[in-house]
Amino acid sequence: MSILSRVVAIARRKSPWICRLNAGSCNGCDIEITPLLSPRYDAEQLGIELHGTPKHADIVLISGTLTHRSRKAILDIYDQVPSPKAVVALGSCPASGNVFAGSPTVLNESLDTIVPVDVWVPGCPPRPQAILDGIARAAKLLEEGATRSQLARSLQGQQAQPQPQPAQPDLTQPELARCEQGRP
Ligand code: SF4
Fold first, then answer.
1. Which end of the chain has fewer CB atoms < 10 Å from its terminal CB, N or C?
2. Phi, psi (degrees; rounded to nearest 5) at 154
């Protein structure tokens, strides 16, 4: 990693910008995010900022149960977040559907099947301290280049590397002579 990349990685850990997505929450998890901005927890003092646009975010915070309608929104927003990026799943709903599981509008699958989740923050709802901890862990993964999207990209890069070609057998003297004379 170059010095510039290292500085950017440290800056990202010290000041991760968050994009929040409610995929179908009862709002319980979202209410627990609000105290993070209050003087009691003061997440901004730690460099954590909530931003309205995914294009400025490092971390996507996804709360709520997953519905058929929210699936496309999750993918759209995830795609708009520039790399490198991390995903934090908030509460029990993104993992299992929680109390909404079995509803006809609910996807009976975990968030992990739609986007790569780096940190799960359990709870219904999780406490603000747990949310802060989840964001800090995601920021650390970003700094280390160890989020699931970063690891997948580096794996793809390795696979795209040109493979060493087997050495061609040397031509025999008669073959070489025929080539020089332009004969097959
Ligand atoms: S985990 Fe609990 S509080 Fe959070 S959205 Fe689901 S039901 Fe609501």
1. C
2. -70, -30
What's 134's DSSP letter? H
DSSP 84-125: S-EEEEESSHHHH-GGGTT-TTB-SS-GGGTS---EEE-SSS
Query: How far apart are the C-alpha atoms of 100 and 94, rounded to whole Å?
Result: 11
Structure tokens at 31: 């209410």
E strand intervals along the chain: 17-22, 49-51, 59-63, 86-90, 119-121
Backbone angles phi, psi at 19, to 5 degrees: -115, 130
Q: Which of 22, 27, 29 to mutate to test the pocket of ligand 1 (most atoms within 8 A of CB)?
A: 29
Query: Which atom of ligand 1 lies at the shortest distance from residue 125's CA?
Result: 3
Q: Enter the tokens of residue 167.
A: 């050495």
> Which residue's alpha carbon is nearest to atom 2 within ligand 1?
124
Structure confidence by residue, pLDDT tens digits, 66-94: 999 999 999 999 999 999 999 999 999 99
Residue whose tokens read 């800090």? 136
